[in-house]
Design a protein that fits this description.
This is Ligand-gated channel. InterPro entries: Beta-barrel_TonB, Beta-barrel_TonB_sf, Plug_dom, Plug_dom_sf, TonB-dep_rcpt-like, TonB_sidphr_rcpt. Belongs to the TonB-dependent receptor family. It is found in: Cell outer membrane. By secondary structure, the chain is mainly β. It has a single domain (about 10-715), classed as Maltoporin, Chain A (Beta Barrel). Helices cover about 5% and strands about 55% of the residues. The longest helix has 19 residues, at about 10-30.
Length: about 725
C-alpha cells in the first residue's frame, strides 16, 4: 500500500483537551466581564419559538468587488448554504453542500453550474481569493457557501461560464462559543469536532475562531477507509476604530482507500447499469486519495468614512495530492473490464492570490451611486511527477470484481513545475439607482493572462500572453419593495483548458476564448421565505480531443435553461429549501452530423432537489426532515445513442434540541439513500476537460444507504 504521508495527526484526546481548556478560561473570564446579549447567526437554539428561517433564508451575501449586498438587489441568480443548514444536514464537505442546489453539479468533479464545468482555479474562491478546486474542502471551517450561477468575469476576472463558488470562512463570534460534536457514520467511523470562538479581551480587539476535526474509520466498503483531519483558525485584530485585520490559517488532511473507482467504457460499448458500490473489487484497498490542503490569508478592511471603505487581501493555497484511484474500463457489453491506476498528472497546485477594492456611495442630484474600483488575480503553479502514466493492474468483470496486488507507484513528490499561470484584472463598476424602482448595474474588467508550459528538464514548451475586456450590464426594476425583476448580459474572457493526458499536445494550455450569457430573472422576498426564478442562455467555445488525438476547440456549446428556487419558512411548522432546474445543453458546429445539435454528455435536462422540515408543535425542539434529489436520464455519448436512467434519492432524518443543565444540546440522526438505490452520481466526458475521439464517458457510483448520528453540546 502506498504509504500515507506524514500528516499531522489529531487524536481525540488532543482534539478535545484544547477546547476544554478554552472553555475553562472563558468561564473564568466571564466571571469578571458581563457582555451584552448579541444574536449570533448560525448558533443552534433549542427554543422552538426561535426564528426557524435563520438557517434557510439568507438575505445578504458578499459578491467580490460589489461588497455586501441584499440578495434581492442584485441582477444575478445566487444560492447560499449556511453554516446552520450544513450542521442540521450533517454535511461534511463542500461537494455535499452542492447537492442541495439543483443548478450545481459537483459530485467528484470540479464544481459547475448550468451544465458548464468550472476552471481549476478561476471559478473557486475562499473569501474572494482564488484557490484550487480539484481537492476536498471540509464544510466545518466555513460559515457559508455562496454560488453565483453563470458568468461573472466582469467581477472576478476571466473564468469559465460555470459559475462562481465563494467559500466564506468562519469569523470570531461576538459572544463566547464552545461547541463540541461527537458523531458516528456507517460502517464504523467516529467523528469529533470542536468549534471555539469569541474575543480574548473585553474591548473586542482580538477575536478568534478555532475549528478542530478528527474523523476516521471504515467506510461503506469492507476494509475501505475514510479519514478527515482539520485544524482551522481565524483571527480578527482591530488595529483602530475603523480598521480590522482578518487572518486565516488551515490545514486539511483527507485520505480514502478502497472506495469504488472510476468507470469508463471502450468504443462502441454501452454504458452499464449502476452496480452495488459496497462490493469489494470495484475499488482497490490500496487505491484512493491522499490529499493535504492548506490555506493562509490576511486581509485589512478600513472604513474611510460612513460612505467609503477600502480592503486589500492576499492568500496562499496549496493542494498536495497523491491519487491512486483505479479506473475500470469496460471493454465489452458483457461487463468485462480492465483496471488501471493512472498516476496523477498534477500532484501539486500552489495558488497565490490577491484582491483589493475601493467601494463608495455618493449622489449626483437625485441619482444614487454605489461605485467600486477593484483588482484581483493570482499566480498559479502546477507540478507534475517525473514518472506518470497508466498502470494496468488486472482484468475482471462487473459480475466478478477482483482485488489486485498493489502496483509500484512513483514518488508523487518527485516532480517538476509543468505549468505557470499569471492572471490579473482591474474592474470598475457602478450601481446607479435612478429612483426607488429602477436601477442599473454596469461593470467592466480588463484582464491580463500569461501562461507557460515546461517539460521535465525545465525547458519552455509553449504558452501565450493575452489580454481582453469582460463587460457586464444589468437592469433592475422593483414593482414593489419586496420584488425585483432584472435582465442581465455578460461577456467574459476565459483562460483556455489544458490538454489532458494521452493527447498529442497533453499539458498544452489553449489560448483564451469568450463566453456570453443573457439572463432574465425575478426575486420575491415574502418575509419568511425567498422565491427566485431565472431564465438564461449561455454560449461558449467547446474544446475536445478529436480523431487526430489533438485537444482543441472544435465546437460550440449552447445551454438554455430555467431555474426555480425557494428557501425559508412556509409557517411555524414547515420550512423548505430547494428548487428545480430545466436545462437544454447542446453541442453545435462539430462538423459531424452524428454529434451536431446533440445533448451534452452527462447532463440531466431536469433536476430537482427539495428539502422539507416539519417542526413538531407538540414536542418542543423536535424536527423531522425529508429530502428528495431527482434527475432525469443522462446521455453517455455525444451521439446520444446511450443513456443512464433517471434517479431519485430519498434522505430522511430528525433532530432534537433541548436545554440540558442549562446548556443547548442537539441530537441529529439521518439516513441517506433510504432505498439503497444503485445509481451513477455523475457522468462526465472521459477526459473531463471535454469530449474525446470515442465520445465515451466516465462515471462515479453514488453512495449506498448510510447512517449519520451526532450529539452536539454548547458549554
Amino acid at each position: 500500500m502506498p504509504s500515507d504521508r506524514c500528516h499531522t495527526r489529531f487524536h481525540f484526546r488532543t482534539l478535545l483537551s484544547l477546547p476544554i481548556l478554552m472553555v475553562l478560561y472563558g468561564n473564568a473570564w466571564a466571571q469578571d466581564i458581563t457582555l451584552p446579549t448579541i444574536d449570533v447567526q448560525g448558533r443552534p437554539d433549542s427554543n422552538a419559538n426561535a426564528d426557524i428561517t435563520r438557517d434557510y433564508k439568507v438575505n445578504r451575501v458578499e459578491l467580490g468587488p460589489l461588497g455586501k449586498r441584499p440578495l434581492i438587489d442584485t441582477p444575478f441568480s445566487v444560492n447560499t448554504v449556511s453554516e446552520g443548514f450544513a450542521e442540521n444536514r450533517q454535511i461534511q464537505s463542500v461537494r455535499e453542500a452542492f447537492r442541495f442546489i439543483p443548478s450545481v453539479q459537483g459530485e467528484n468533479i470540479r464544481p459547475q453550474t448550468r451544465g458548464l464545468q468550472a476552471s481549476v482555479v478561476q471559478n473557486t474562491l475562499i473569501d474572494g481569493l482564488n484557490i484550487a478546486a480539484t481537492t476536498d474542502y471540509p464544510i466545518e471551517q466555513f460559515q457559508r457557501i455562496d454560488v453565483l450561477n453563470g458568468l461573472a468575469g466582469a467581477l472576478f476576472g476571466p473564468a469559465q461560464p460555470g459559475g462562481t463558488f465563494n467559500y466564506v470562512m468562519k469569523r470570531p463570534t461576538a459572544v463566547p462559543l464552545h461547541r463540541l460534536t461527537a458523531g458516528y457514520l456507517s460502517q464504523s467511523q467516529w467523528l469529533a469536532h470542536a468549534d471555539i470562538g469569541g474575543y480574548a479581551d473585553p474591548e473586542h480587539r482580538f477575536g478568534y475562531r478555532l475549528n478542530l476535526l478528527d474523523q476516521d474509520g471504515t467506510s461503506y466498503v469492507d476494509n475501505g477507509r475514510l479519514r478527515r483531519q482539520l485544524a482551522s483558525f481565524g483571527g480578527d485584530i482591530r488595529l483602530g476604530p475603523d480598521t480590522v485585520l482578518e487572518t486565516n490559517a488551515s490545514i486539511y488532511n483527507y485520505l480514502t482507500r478502497g472506495l469504488p473507482g472510476t468507470f469508463a467504457v471502450a468504443n462502441n460499448v454501452v454504458f452499464p447499469a449502476a452496480v452495488d458500490p459496497t462490493r469489494v473489487g470495484y475499488g482497490q484497498p490500496w487505491g484512493g486519495d491522499d490529499n493535504k490542503t492548506t490555506f493562509l490569508s490576511g486581509r485589512i478592511k478600513h472604513d474611510i468614512n460612513e460612505n467609503w471603505r477600502f480592503s486589500v487581501g492576499v492568500s496562499r493555497n496549496t493542494s498536495d495530492r497523491a491519487s491512486t484511484v483505479p479506473t475500470n474500463t469496460i471493454r465489452s457489453n458483457a461487463g468485462n473490464f480492465v483496471t488501471t491506476a493512472a498516476t496523477t498528472t498534477f500532484s501539486l497546485d500552489t495558488v497565490d492570490s490577491n484582491q483589493a477594492a475601493l467601494n463608495g456611495r455618493f449622489e449626483t442630484g437625485p441619482i444614487k451611486h454605489d461605485l467600486f474600483l477593484a483588482t484581483n488575480g493570482f499566480l498559479w503553479n502546477r507540478y507534475t511527477p517525473f514518472t506518470r502514466g497508466a498502470i494496468t493492474v488486472g482484468n475482471a468483470s462487473l459480475g466478478n470484481p477482483l482485488v489486485f496486488s498493489e502496483p509500484n507507484f512513483p514518488d508523487f513528490k518527485d516532480r517538476y513545475r509543468s505549468v505557470y499561470t499569471f492572471q490579473q484584472s482591474v474592474t470598475l463598476g457602478d450601481t446607479v439607482a435612478l429612483n426607488d424602482q429602477w436601477s442599473v448595474l454596469v461593470a467592466v474588467s480588463n484582464s491580463w493572462i500569461n501562461t507557460s508550459n515546461y517539460n521535465s528538464v525545465g525547458s519552455l514548451t509553449g504558452g501565450y500572453h493575452a489580454s481582453g475586456w469582460s463587460p457586464l450590464g444589468g437592469i433592475m426594476f422593483k414593482p414593489r419593495e419586496n420584488v425585483t425583476t432584472y435582465v442581465t448580459y455578460a461577456n467574459s474572457l476565459q483562460q483556455g483548458d489544458s490538454a489532458p493526458a494521452g493527447t498529442i499536445n497533453q499539458g498544452e494550455a489553449l489560448a483564451p476564448f469568450r463566453s456570453n450569457q443573457y439572463e432574465l430573472g425575478a426575486k420575491f422576498d415574502l418575509g419568511r421565505i425567498n422565491l427566485n426564478a431565472a431564465l438564461y442562455r449561455i454560449e461558449r467555445p467547446y474544446a475536445y480531443t478529436g480523431s487526430d488525438n489533438v485537444f482543441s476547440v472544435k465546437g460550440t456549446q449552447i445551454n438554455r435553461g430555467v431555474e426555480l428556487m425557494a428557501s425559508g419558512a412556509i409557517n411555524n411548522e414547515w420550512t423548505v429549501f430547494g428548487g428545480m432546474t430545466f436545462i437544454d445543453p447542446r453541442l453545435y458546429n462539430t462538423g459531424s452530423p452524428q454529434t451536431d445539435g446533440r445533448r451534452i454528455l452527462g447532463l440531466s435536462q431536469f433536476v430537482m432537489n427539495c428539502l422539507v422540515e416539519y417542526h413538531v408543535p407538540a414536542v418542543q425542539g423536535l424536527t423531522f426532515t425529508a429530502n428528495v434529489n431527482y434527475g432525469t436520464n443522462r446521455p453517455t455519448d455525444y451521439a446520444n445513442t446511450s443513456f443512464v436512467p433517471d434517479y431519485a434519492v430519498l434522505n430522511l432524518g430528525m433532530r432534537y434540541a433541548q436545554l440540558v443543565a442549562g446548556k443547548p444540546v442537539t441530537f441529529r440522526f439521518d439516513v441517506f439513500n433510504v432505498t439503497d438505490l444503485h445509481y451513477w452520481a455523475n457522468v462526465t466526458p472521459a477526459a473531463q476537460n471535454g469530449y474525446n475521439a470515442t465520445g465515451s464517458a466516465t462515471g462515479m457510483l453514488g453512495a449506498p444507504r448510510t447512517v449519520r448520528a451526532s450529539l452536539q453540546v454548547e458549554l
